[in-house]
Amino acid sequence: METDETDHVLPFQLQFDKPVASQVKIAEWNPEKDLLAMVTEDSKILLHRFNWQRLWTISPGRNITSLCWRPDGKAIAVGLEDGTISLHDVENGKLLRSLKSHTVAVVCLNWEEEGQLIRDDSKTSSSYEDRTSRFFPPAPRVPRMPGVVSGDTSFMEDSEDSYGELSNSSYQRFNILCSGDKDGSICFSIFGIFPIGKININRFSVPTPFMDKQTPRQISNSSIYKVSLSKDLCRLIVMCSGELNENTESRESQMVGQGMHSLVLDTSIFSKRKSELHQLAQQASNIEDLTEVIRASLSVMCKQWSDAMRTFLEKFDSLSTLIIDHALDSSPQEEFLSLLGGARTSSAVHQFLVNSLGEVGVKRVLKVICGTAKELQRIVLDHLQPAAEIIGFRMGELRGLSRWRARYHGIGLDEMLINNATEKCGMILVQIERFMRVLSTVEQQFSNFFNWLLKCIKLLMQEPSDQLLPYNSELVVIFLKFLYDQDPVKQLLEVDHDIEVDLETMQRVKELVQFGGFSDCEYLQRTLAKEFQQMEDSFKEAFLMPFTTVSRKMLYEDLLALFPLPSSSASVSMAIPMSISSYEVHFHQCMGNFLHLCSIEPSN
Amino acid sequence: MTNGAEGFDSVPSSSGSNGSGRYEIGLIYLGMMHLHFGHPKQALQVLTEAVRFSQQQSNESCLAYTLAAICNVLSEFGCSSSAGVLGTSFSPITSMDTSLSVGQQLFVLLRESLKRAESLKLKRLVASNHLALAKFDLLHAQRSLLSFGPKASMKLRTFPINVCKELRLCSNLISEFGYESSTMTTDGAFSTTWLNNLPKSMDSPLLPQENGHRNNCDAHRFFTQLSTVPKSVLQLLGSSYIMRSTAWEMYGSAPLARINSLVYTTCFADASSSSDAASVHAKLIQHLAVFRGYKEAFVALKVAEEKFLTVSKSVILLVKLQLLHERALHRGNLKLAQQVCDELGVLASSVSGVDKDLKTEASLRHARTLLAANQFSQAAAVAHSLFCMCYKFNMQVQNATVLLLLAEIHKKSGNAVLGLPYALASLSFCQSFNLDLLKASATLTLAELWLSLGSNHAKRALTLIHGALPMILGHGGLELQARAQITEAKCYLSDPSYSVFKDSEVVLDLLRQASDELQVLEYHELAAEAFYLMAHVFDKLGQLERREEAAASFKEHMMALENPQDEDDPLLNMF
């Protein structure tokens, strides 16, 4: 039920009690509790109890243009000037999610839940269980970036708790958030998190009411004032201003006049396919969350590793300069090799090991690199791998749904696209396993190399070296050959690299195609980061299909021209007090029907 | 598939005593060998001796390994007499209540073993114990199923989350071997790969001067060949992927089952034992047969046969027999089916001892063959004795399958009412063990049973099918999908409120999909049914030409079913 709180008495009472720095421009009552959310002119959101006890205040930093409550009263949706819609937790005002679905200011929001009235549900609804919670422990969270200030981390933890709860919509009733912007676009998102459609009322052709005229008209330069979805989700009422133009092929579009219109759109797809949309939104929004986990993990890992490697390079850079200073014609690797072979110890290496690096230096670099490697392994094992696995599972579930053509083809779930996405999930799992192996090997090689260096330093300084860990000289050779000036871990974490795969592995992958392996044999040549990018693209493509399909199914139904507006004021967003309410009317056939009442208070 | 033996290669070094632990290790190996050849009694005797001796020598780590080996014996054979054999000398077992079932004994032992391994920091053993626990959690409900009944049944569940957790804990092994292995690798272990590289870089110095233009053929070797992760670690990690794949086959997620097998074959092929590799390939071949039909599966089988020629013929042979049997049943070639079935039976009780799982499968297939031959009472008798055997050995997962088969037998023999309790019992078993795919298939059977009770149950049947459809379409094979589609179409057709003239496309689309899938499988009987229904619908709609077309296809499939010809069968001639 949408009511615009434009009672002028309340803000004045508040000012008596607790003066607010600036004028309140929007106020909305919580549908469940005695909470009033208000937006002030200086873009703050205040939440008060009935007794004017202030619960919290937040300022999103941008101009707030609209606000509405989630039907269960546990979250607030806020429309911002730049087209972003953000959801805030009712408990503490923390940002749960933000979605930039518009390009211009979001001027109205309406969050509607499916009505209580369920007619003959046994036929349409299928009891579908989200199996994920039965088979997997709670989904992994975004890994924490190291070195974040403690104040920040507590914020992150809190928000993540409600973040996870937001996607777990299996017990929620189906609901849809509609938002309208200044340019006449209306966006729909299921549970406020999964965008399912976008329409622009400027594109609808409006048949003329007169029978003799056949030319359809179009609304142009429209701006939405209010949207309201009926309780049965079948109809959307839009109040908008705009020019109603005649659209003909020969003539220039003829201006009919600037005015206020009320449009009725057919959104019966939402009520007809609500359980299908519910399941799609549930799986897809969870997949998107998990994709976010993978993205964050990758970026955290990339940053940590490059920091660690920088320490290593900084320390060992001086060896090359020392070699040049000593006028030697060789590379650091060769110097180390000859040290290992026991042939000679050049003065450059001696100076480097004993003076510039030293035992402490080696130990420090060892600690940095191996500690980072351990950290990376933790991230892979606790975040990356589980996230990818759950994504694979959820995609598999979506695949099952997409093959139920009679039900899911209508909402645009495409079998081919979902299959493709599932293949990509499999590839990323293989890639993660390969990355883990490379990482573990690199860690081991580094620790072996540094153990050897420690021993060398002890020998060079003629100190006893029997307390040190043993090393494997063969691994030292391999390290010098393959790892000293290359960084396979970093390569895998960056997008623009080609990984060369040896023939044997290629052959194995090709052979696997016969056994039902991935038909794309080249995937091992991509890096982990690149593979992730492709996976993300395939998801986007797969989820865009329902978006466009559903958008196309929202049709024009009726238009009522309300009153003309002075054309000068069209560009200026002016406040016209109005409200839309829908009422349920029972006819004789015991069929519920909804009627809309629009009330307008022409103030100017 | 996964036994505790993988970790044993590290016993010598991790026990820390050189030479003194040899006798115990020898005993453990002997015990494992006995187990491998199917002599659980002797294995337990030997392991008891190992326990005694390790206790005498206070060789803690060896004791932990022995415990793991005993767990392995118990889980493989579930000897009820184990407590009697071990009871005298081993504290963890003597402290156990003798009234505990084998499953509970095993659980206690596994926990104990894990605890010991953790306290001794035997990382491989810890991982292997996690794997064993995952396997236990996969197959056992947390409480004994002896109190199975309508009220208790809801509480008795397996907990898939635990399986997932144990598997993840097992994967942690890869981050833990880091420091130890530089000492463990014997010098020269890498020289083979090293030498392989050498010929190519002979002409250039070992380390080329121009560092910027280092040829990539060196660099890429690092990714694949120079992995220094020890083989025993890789084998354990690989086993965890096989376990994942098996778990998903049971829980019902076809994409994840396939993907995990693929991860194994792509990443662990170089380190895996050939029997593991063969069993993963067998999984992939079965997956192919179920989802893409026999033609592709047989091509893959041919490749696999060449690949695993020498080593573990039995796994591949088993898959071959399974595929041949399925296909013969579908094509209606019952003589061949019976022949293959007998061969399976021989395989089940070979020289190396009786394989219970294989024996179960053989008699399951025997019952299905009898069912296909319409010998209902014989089929039911075989299924009943099989149920008794499964019950005796606590093989609950197989029980669900057998119950479903009994329901099918009653359905086909026309006693739908008798079939209902079996289908429901199967359903509740599936629910307890989270066997979602089997549950979907049981739901389908239930719907078919309701439908055969009369058209006034059509709506109920349709609701049942719709509830199971996401599962069936997403994770079920071609046969299951086609069956579901045909049954759904039949529900519509027998529903009095449905009119063919108004919405014929719903039914026709279903039948078309089903007949496509069945033609891939060469499942003549069901395909004929699909075409029969199709012809009926076209007849009602008055589309005579298309009716004739469907009727012709129907006739074709019936003819093929009546006289199966295997002489000119290209797939059979491959072998």
TrEMBL record, chain A:
The keyword Ribonucleoprotein does not apply. It comes from the Eukaryota. This is Anaphase-promoting complex subunit 4. Residues 28-113 form the Anaphase-promoting complex subunit 4-like WD40 domain. GO terms for cellular component: anaphase-promoting complex; nuclear periphery. InterPro entries: APC4, Apc4-like_WD40_dom, APC4_long_dom, WD40/YVTN_repeat-like_dom_sf, WD40_repeat_dom_sf, WD40_rpt. One of its GO terms (biological process) is protein K11-linked ubiquitination. Residues 262-463 form the Anaphase-promoting complex subunit 4 long domain. It comes from Salix udensis. Keywords: Cell cycle, Cell division, Mitosis, Ubl conjugation pathway. SUPFAM superfamilies: WD40 repeat-like (SSF50978).
UniProtKB/TrEMBL annotation, chain B:
It comes from the Eukaryota. Keywords: Cell cycle, Cell division, Mitosis, Ubl conjugation pathway. Residues 8-75 form the Anaphase-promoting complex subunit domain. Pfam families: ANAPC5. InterPro entries: Apc5, Apc5_dom. One of its GO terms (biological process) is protein K11-linked ubiquitination. The keyword Transmembrane helix does not apply. GO terms for cellular component: anaphase-promoting complex. PANTHER family: ANAPHASE-PROMOTING COMPLEX SUBUNIT 5. Belongs to the APC5 family. This is Anaphase-promoting complex subunit 5. It comes from Salix udensis.
